[in-house]
Amino acid sequence: MAYISTDEAYSLAETILKQHGFSDRQTRALTDTVVAGQRDECHSHGLYRLFNCVSTLNAGKVVADAEPTVHEPSSAIVRVDANGGFSQLAFQAGLPVLNEKAKRHGIAALAINRCVHFSALWVEIEAITELGLVGLACNPSHAWVAPEGGSKPLFGTNPLAFGWPRPNDEFPFIFDFATSAVARGDIELHRREQRAIPEGWGINAEGQPSTDPEAVLNGAMLPFGGHKGSALAAMIELIAGPLINDLTSEESLAYDDGSNASPYHGELIIAMDPKHFMAGNDEACFARAETLFQGMLDQGARLPSQRRYEARERSRNDGIHVPDTLYHDLKQLL
Amino acid sequence: MAYISTDEAYSLAETILKQHGFSDRQTRALTDTVVAGQRDECHSHGLYRLFNCVSTLNAGKVVADAEPTVHEPSSAIVRVDANGGFSQLAFQAGLPVLNEKAKRHGIAALAINRCVHFSALWVEIEAITELGLVGLACNPSHAWVAPEGGSKPLFGTNPLAFGWPRPNDEFPFIFDFATSAVARGDIELHRREQRAIPEGWGINAEGQPSTDPEAVLNGAMLPFGGHKGSALAAMIELIAGPLINDLTSEESLAYDDGSNASPYHGELIIAMDPKHFMAGNDEACFARAETLFQGMLDQGARLPSQRRYEARERSRNDGIHVPDTLYHDLKQLL
């Protein structure tokens, strides 16, 4: 098992991305998120994703030197056209404008269009909480999930993320979850290991419940939480798709056309400034949120992201853990 | 079984509320929502709620003639102080300002404070979609639900509602669900009928899974969808509680102090104007949303609220259905 410093992780990622033709600005934005994922032991969004960056580029499905363009369609909306690049740089281009608008008007939205997407949303939500804002983010993906009561893929795994700043704590309250019962990667992992998946994860091509990972990957995944999770997935299709003049998961999958690249679609982020909402009682309001968190911890419930923050502290002390095979394979990209 | 006209339903509700001391304006706003609930055969939020209105008033937990006051803490936020009245009149007072702000800035928020709450959120969301806006609403309730991994009540049943306007369809796309596994009323119904509840609805006072409705009512309900539903419930506590300088579900239950009145707390509503988001492609974007809905229907999935809209058509044709016992009991309130 290799433990590498943050600097080494940055350097490794940057070298790989630049060598394959990504521009300096795209490289830096991508590196920020994959190193953050690796640091937090969120391996599915860590350095491992560099393979996807390269294969998506090789498939001609991402613009390696895209420069996002920033538009302001209204006083409280900022729209960033990623121009076919990965989402990360587009987010970074839009964030200062989102911040300014949220702080001026109390609430604001950032719509990212025409981006290639693989980023975990918590990275972006954390950047929003660092500005003292409450954030909500979501995006479609590829049509892999059947609506509750249906039998065919229609929705994406459609993640939803939320963040609450904690002025007196290093770590914000953040959750980031797929509205599918599990991540698609979990089913792929079971297939590779030839293990049955639990009931409730998916259905086969005939629409019947199945525990065969292969059958579910060729059938449909299921939303979490029955009709409620399904409704949330539909909401995300709408507000991060047609609302912002961008693709649904079905349209994104059609665009992919079998290339198996990272999905291409939009993303919606809403930011709210507590200073405008809390009616001058900021300190008391933030303290009452802490009472809620303590009420969770006192009865043995975890705060979301707690595991990630514990991993971050480990990485800070021991270096960033990179499994040997991953490290070896990454070197092959050089 | 009685079938009464909409006029009769209005007249019955108004007479009861006025006779018990509610002001004309409070009465009209309350009547609108309980008749809408009865009309849509959403019985838990129909005329039946008039008993709660009266008992909450008798318990001294609602101001019968409260006049909401409207504040504008920032350009895109409207805050309505219900001044201890029911939420409905406060919502009606805030809606025109929310509409104007959303249409001017693209996104806006309405925070309702210090309201007594029993309204189904879909009534409000539908009013928002009728203005051509996309809406999202949520509120805490009373601390009845344990967080995932915990064992004690902390969260409310915290409903979340969303609406999408459909320019060429009479009925908008709307969902409105509790973030608890089921409504508290469903467990109370099982208790009355001395039936066991399904696993997953709740735990007893020792934190153990239970199918005994009495034990769960004295223990804790569970969120829907495990840690994801639990995270959503926490988000609603935060954004419709401390964010808007109002009570969490735990604080609301403490305020109730055993009187069993309707909960007293706040509510947050976010409205977005598609015209500002859709980059001039409104028609195509709304059409693509319809493709999504058709994709759901084509595979046998329902649209949320479909059952309610079917009931509404029945009520339009046959009159509003009021079960005999309910009709009889309501007459006793006169």
From TrEMBL, chains A, B:
Name the record gives this protein: Malate/lactate/ureidoglycolate dehydrogenase, LDH2 family
SUPFAM superfamilies, per database record: L-sulfolactate dehydrogenase-like
Q: Name one GO molecular function term.
A: oxidoreductase activity
Q: What Pfam families is this protein classified in?
A: Ldh_2
Annotated source species: Aidingimonas halophila
- Is Oxidoreductase there in the keyword field? yes
Q: Which UniProt keywords apply?
A: Oxidoreductase
> Belongs to which family?
Belongs to the LDH2/MDH2 oxidoreductase family.
InterPro entries recorded? Mal/L-sulf/L-lact_DH-like_ah, Mal/L-sulf/L-lact_DH-like_NADP, Mal/L-sulfo/L-lacto_DH-like_sf, Malate/L-lactate_DH-like
